[in-house]
Design goal:
It is built from twelve helices and 18 strands. The protein has helices at about 15-25, 30-65, 150-160, 160-165, 270-295, 310-315, 315-330, 335-350, 385-405, 410-415, 420-440, 450-505, and strands spanning about 75-80, 85-90, 95-105, 110-115, 130-135, 140-145, 165-170, 175-185, 190, 205, 220, 230, 235-240, 245, 250-255, 260-270, 370, 380. A five-stranded antiparallel β-sheet has the order 1-16-3-12-13, covered by helices on one side. A four-stranded antiparallel β-sheet has the order 7-8-4-11. InterPro entries: Flagellin_hook_IN_motif, FliD, FliD_C, FliD_N. This is Flagellar hook-associated protein 2. Its main location: secreted.
Length: about 500
């Protein structure tokens, strides 16, 4: 800031500040133009970076399409789910399996035993008026005289974690049932040390897969498994459950009225997963080139330049925003770098994949993906039926079109041999590198790009001009201050003369 003392028309009566400000408007024109050029360069740089972000999104999608795993997703199917359903648990070694169910297994059941209460017990809330105890799988259960069946069941279920047994009540049959929490030969209901008779008729005994020692007339069930038999690809296997695992596949058998029954299990390409991956790629490609083409086709109105500081002072925030929206539009109109990048992307998709294993499947158009009219600038369209058929009938060829890697040392030949996703990825990298070299990256702490250097140059020139204008302004104020000083001296001399002449007249 200048230290020049500024006299603001104290003697002359002039509005010195307004006069200097008016004079400085002309002096500031070169500075305003520099600021406008810098602002325009910053806006254009931001536009380039925005386009680079779009290309990066497309590159990330292209990266997935380079990977064979994207096209090798498999799904297990059963041709007769009334016989068997399947779930993939590991990696099956074969592509198909024939399942012949000779007989179905009887699944292991929980061990259980039922006791019918005396007729004197009206319901589960009736007090038994009889105290007794017993051990359930070595855990003692004490029954008080005031307990009802409901109370007893609560006591039994409160220790289920220890006994492995739960109890329930059947109202219609007025019976209490003990059921193991698990099935199989190890599941056991063992009742011992019954202290006398009781109205529930609970008696001693054991029931499980190996023993059944409850007295005759007591309802009970063993937990034994009755194995079934299946043939897988012609070889016979015993199965102890309706759900079993074989070669990374979980197979669930369904009950049938007649046996044997058959189903074929197939490991096929997951058509939906592959189709959705390709569709997602096409949608992203269309989205990106659409936005870039829109940017290239925008018109730029040269009458709308960045506003100067003085111009902004006279406008509202809304007016400034509207003006700058127009001023920013069309800065990349017909940009050769972006146009060239889009041209390279279109060629990467349009050219045949040289050396493909099937000459009839070496191009997107041969799997149901075509290009729109010339006016649509390379937009892609999918014929869903054709693409799904290609995935289903020649999935490996579809994969090759996208993922094939060139093996030639010659770059041009390597390009022709590469799949379209490989080409596209490489072309996107080249385009992004060019844009970054020109406009830099918002993620970088330093900007050594061409436009970054231009902006730095503008900033330095602006600082120099601001210093120069400060000196010019100081000179104007010095001149006006000198004028004020001179006028003040003249006024003082005039006053002195008036005083002298005035004094001479009065002495006569």
């Amino acid at each position: 800031m200048s230290n020049t003392m500024r006299m603001s028309g104290l003697v002359s009566g002039m509005d010195t500040d307004a006069t200097v400000k008016s004079l400085m408007k002309t002096e500031k024109v070169p500075l305003d133009k520099l600021k406008q050029k810098k602002q325009m360069e910053e806006w254009k740089r931001d536009d380039y970076r925005e386009m680079n972000s779009l290309l990066m999104d497309l590159r990330n999608t292209s990266m997935n399409m380079k990977l064979q795993g994207t096209f090798q997703k498999k799904v297990l199917t059963s041709d007769n789910e009334n016989v068997a359903t399947v779930k993939q648990m590991g990696q099956p070694s074969l592509s198909s399996y024939t399942i012949d169910v000779i007989s179905a297994p009887v699944d292991a059941q929980p061990a259980l035993v039922k006791f019918k209460a005396d007729a004197s017990v009206a319901d589960d809330s009736t007090e038994l008026n009889q105290a007794f105890s017993f051990k359930l799988n070595d855990v003692k259960i004490d029954v008080a005289a005031t307990d009802s069946i409901s109370n007893i069941i609560s006591k039994i279920n409160s220790v289920s974690a220890k006994t492995g047994v739960s109890a329930s009540y059947m109202e219609d049959g007025k019976s209490i049932t003990f059921t193991t929490l698990t099935a199989g030969s190890d599941a056991k209901v063992s009742i011992s040390d019954v202290s006398g008779s009781n109205k529930l008729n609970i008696t001693q005994g054991i029931v499980n897969g190996a023993q059944n020692t409850f007295p005759a007339g007591t309802a009970k069930q063993s937990s034994n498994v009755v194995p079934g038999e299946v043939k897988i690809n012609g070889l016979s296997y015993p199965v102890n459950s309706s759900t079993f695992k074989f070669d990374g596949i979980e197979i669930s058998l369904k009950k049938s009225a007649t046996y044997p029954v058959s189903a074929k299990i197939s490991l096929k390409t997951d058509e939906d997963a592959v189709f959705n991956a390709i569709k997602g790629f096409v949608d992203k490609y269309n989205e990106v080139i659409g936005k870039i083409n829109t940017k290239l086709q925008e018109s730029h109105n040269k009458d709308y330049q960045p506003l100067t500081d003085d111009q902004k002072e006279s406008l509202s925030d809304t007016q400034i925003e509207k003006w700058e929206t127009i001023a920013k539009t069309g800065l990349l109109q017909r940009d050769s770098m972006l146009s060239g990048a889009l041209g390279d992307l279109r060629l990467a998709l349009a050219n045949n994949v040289a050396g493909a294993s099937d000459p009839k499947a070496d191009n997107l158009s041969e799997i149901g993906i075509t290009t729109g009219t010339y006016t649509e600038n390379g937009k892609l369209y999918i014929n869903e039926d054709d693409l799904r058929e290609a995935i289903r009938e020649k999935g490996d060829k579809v994969m090759e079109i996208f993922t094939k890697k060139g093996v030639s040392a010659d770059p041009d030949t390597n390009y022709k041999e590469s799949g379209i996703a490989v080409r596209l990825y490489d072309q996107l990298n080249k385009a992004m590198t060019k844009i970054t070299d020109k406009a830099g990256s918002a993620a970088s702490l330093t900007d050594k790009s061409v436009m970054g250097k231009n902006i730095d140059k503008y900033s330095k020139d602006i600082k120099q001009w601001e210093s120069r204008l400060s000196d010019i302004e100081d000179r104007y104020y010095k001149r006006f201050s000198a004028m004020e000083t001179a006028l003040d001296k003249i006024n003082q001399q005039g006053n002195y003369l008036l005083q002298q002449f005035g004094g001479g007249s009065s002495s006569k």
